[in-house]
Amino acid sequence: MSAPEILAPAGGQESLVAAVRAGADAVYLGAKGFNARRNAENFADLAEAVSYCHARGVKTHIALNTLVSDDELPALDAELEEICAAGADAVIVQDWAVAQRARAMCPSLVLHASTQMAIHNAAGAKMAEDAGFARVVLARELSLQEIAAIRQQTRLELEAFVHGALCMSASGMCYLSSALGERSGNRGLCAQPCRLNFRENGREYALSLKDLSNFKHLRALAEAGVCSFKIEGRMRRAEYVASAVDACHKALRGEPYDEESLKRMFSRAGFTDGYLTGKRTLAMFGRRREEDVAAEKEYAQMRALYRGEYHRVGVDMRFWADAAGSHLAASDGENAAEIADAAPEAARTAPTTAGRVRESLAKTGDTPFYLRDCAVELPQGVALPGAQINRMRREALAALLEKRAAPRPIPCQSAPLSIAPRCAAGQPKLRARFESFAQLEAFPVERVEYAILPAREITAHPQALEIPNLVCELPALLYPGMETNALPQGVSRALCENLGAVRLAREADLQVFGGHGLNIFNSLALEAYAQMGLASATLSCELTLRAATHMGGSLERGIVAYGRLPLMRLRACPVNRCHACPGQSELTDRKGVRFPLLCDARRYVTLFNSVPLYIGDKRLDGLDFATLYFTIESPRECRAVLEAFERAAPPDFPRTTGQYFKGVL
C-alpha cells in the first residue's frame, strides 16, 4: 500500500509556500472564481502557482466546487482553459455542468467529486465513478466503518478530511447562510451563521462544532481505503497550514506531535473525532474562546517550519573529470541537466577525493532536491576547488528546477455551448409533500398531481400505498447500512434528494423525481439529470424565479413554492436526548426567532426555516410544477394552503419569498 497523500489548503501565496515547504504532497487552491472559498485570497496567476508546486514535486488540485448559473457558463469555459494551460493535476467539482464542460473541452483533465456533492454512501460514489470521476471527497460525517464499506464497493480514490473546521450541516445541503443573509455556501460565500448563538433548551451555540482532528486515526483511515488526507483551512493563516501539515507527517510516522499547540493555532474549545469514532455526543460542540488563540511566539515557531525548502525530490548525480574538463550530470528521473567546467589541475598537496566531491554535491541547501545516488570518477592526483564543485551543483539543480517548472498544459479545445431550448409550459401543476401521514387526513390528494410522503411514513402506514398518485420520498441522507431498507415495498415513484438515492431508485426500476437537494442551478445540470433518467426535477431554491423559468432543456422542472425550507441536514444532533425526545424540537437565535428541528427516525435531523416560503400569489408561468412542502402544519393548515394556491391568494400568515426575487451572492 502506497503512503497516503497529505493534501493541504492554499488560500493565498504565503499559505501555498508554507504547505509546500512543510511537506505537503499536494495542495488545493482556488482560481479567480467558482470555488467554495471565494473570500480567500485565491490565485490570479494560476500558472505561476502550479509551476511552483510542480517544480517541487507537489500536485495541484483546483477547486471549481460551486454552483454555476447559465449566465456564468462562458466564464466557466474560460476558467477551464486557464486551468488546462497551467497544467493542474485535477479539478474539484460540485456542479454537474462543470463536469460536463470539462468532459467536452478537456477530457483528460482529472475530476474529483467535491464534498459539496454530499457523497456519503457507495451508491453516490458509484454515480460519480460512472460519470468519469477519479476521486470522491467523502462527507465529513462518516465513521471509519462506513468509509471502509464504501471502499469495498467502488474503485474511486477516496479522500477524507482529517483536520480543520467541521460544518454543522452535511456539505452541499446547507442553505442557512443564503436564507439569513443571501450569501450562499453553495456559491462559495458562506457567512458561517452557524457560529452565532443558536440556543436549544438553554444550551448556547447549539450549531457550533469543534474543529475536526483525526491525526490519531491516520493508520486506521489508510487501512479503510483512504488515499488522501485532506486538511481544511483555505481561509486560515500560513502558520496554521504549516503546523497541520507537520503534525500530519509526524502522526503518519508514529511520532508525537504537539496537539496543544495545534489547538491554540486554531480550534474551538479543542478538537473532536466524534464522527469518525461514531461518538456523536454533545462533546462534539464548541466555540472559539480567548484561550484558544495562539501567542505571537507560537506563530514564530510555526514559521520556522517553512523557512527553507522541503527536500522531497530525489536527484541522481554523476561527476567525472578528464583533460577536457569537469562534468556534472544530474537527473530527477524525468529531467536531466549537464554542466561543464574547467578541467582539474595536478594536486600540489592533498588531491581531491571522490568522497569530498560527494560531500559537496550532497549540499542541496535551499532547494527541493536531495542527493539520491552519486557516482564520481576522478583521475588520480588531481585537485578541484570546492567553489567550482559547488557552482556546478548549483547550476545543475537550477537547470533541473527550471525544467520541472515548465508548463505541462493539458489538451483543451473549444466546445459548442449548446443548451436545448425550453419547451413552453403553461401554469404549473401542484404537488404536495407531507412530513407525516396524519397530514393527509383532510387533504384532497386528487387535486394535486402527486402526493409525496417520506419512506418511513409509507412503511409505518401501508394504507398510503392506496393513494394512486403517491411518490415515496427517500431520506435526504442514507449513510452506509441505511440503504438496505430505504425503499418500501409497493412504491412505483421516488423523490430523490441526493445522488445515492437516485441510483437506488433507478436500480429498483422506479420513476425518479429529483428533489431540490440535488442543487440544480443551470440548464446543463438539468440536462445531465435528464440523461440519468429522471422524469422531473425540482430546481435549487437559491435560484431566482426568472432564472428558474428561463432554464433550457426538455426535462420537466419545478420549484418549492410553499413551505419551511430545509436549511441544514444534521448528523450531530443539537438536541442529543434520544431517550426523551419526541422527534421535534426547535432552536432560538439571538433575536428570539425560532427554527423548527425534526428528527428522521434517528438517522439525521433537519433544521427548517422559521417562516414558510409562500409565492402562491406570484406568477409561476414557465414551470411545470410547484411543490407545497408541508412540515409541521396541521391537516387543516395543509388544506388551507392548497386552497390559497388555487385562488392565487396572498397568505394570511407571515411569509418569506425566499431567494426567488433577490437571488444569492
From TrEMBL:
Record Pfam families: DUF3656, Peptidase_U32
Domain Peptidase U32 collagenase: 301-404
Superkingdom: Bacteria
Signal peptide: none
InterPro entries, A to Z: Pept_U32_collagenase (IPR020988), Peptidase_U32 (IPR001539), RNA/ubiquinone_mod_enzymes (IPR051454)
PANTHER family according to UniProt: 23S RRNA 5-HYDROXYCYTIDINE C2501 SYNTHASE (PTHR30217:SF10), PEPTIDASE U32 FAMILY (PTHR30217)
Protein name in the entry: U32 family peptidase
